[in-house]
Amino acid sequence: xxxxxxxxxxxxxxxxxxAASALQALEARRVPTSSALRxxxxxxxxxxxxxxxxxxxxxxxxxxxxGALALASVALVQPALGLGLIVLLALxxxxxxxxxxxVEVAGAAAIAAAxxxxxxxxxxxxxxxxxxxxxxxxxxxxxxxxxxxVLRATGRPGGLTTSIAAGLGWACVGLAxxxxxxxxxxxxxxxxxxxxxAVAAASASTLLAEMTALQFWPATRAVPLVFxxxxxxxxxxxPLVAHASPLHPLAFGLALAVACGGAxxxxxxxxxxxxxxxx
Length: 279
Description:
This protein is an all-alpha fold. Helix content is about 80%, strand content about 0%. The protein has helices spanning about 1-30, 40-45, 50-70, 75-80, 85-95, 100-120, 130-155, 160-185, 190-215, 220-240, 250-265, 270-279.
């Protein structure tokens, strides 16, 4: 039952994140690219109501994600975020009357089947990090926070690099959120405050990278890459940074690959992109 509740919360998380991306993408494309990877980009966007509404959805989504991570392993919760893409696909068909092709159907089926397989094969219980793993996540957050500065300094504000930075950044935020939940469970309040501050800093930098990606790339290119990295990386590294060995390693690895492949297939769909654009 805990895993089922976690998957439900992950679905809610994914829907809120998708809504946030949709609302914020609309506004990001209206801001000149001269502000790419600069704090002024977020400052300009923060004055726009739709973008702020997207920010509220994102915060609510993070809360739902934290709730899911309190119930189940990060190796299950993060891949389950792909379920939101299936709902976007269904909404695109229902609201925009778009036709769904075999690629989208196969992608949606792959995600649904893979999440079921992950629930069966993923580590049981919530994630318990090792000491080296905790330090590794902390170091990754520092790199995440610095990513926009590095990309701007090297003159690489394009869609590919910023989409990769955003996907990896949200993956790190997911891992750090699991550590924050762990600290709350054990009543280590000072540690919780430190992780909360780190998550906030990394989230701001990752948001900047994502908004820049949406300035340069259409949703059909940026969304699949960001989603697949956010889904796959935490689950893939969980056995390395936590006491989270899969119950069935081979099935887990195959299911994770299938889930990410399905997310790419669905995320590239014009139906999903149309639903994002219509939000």
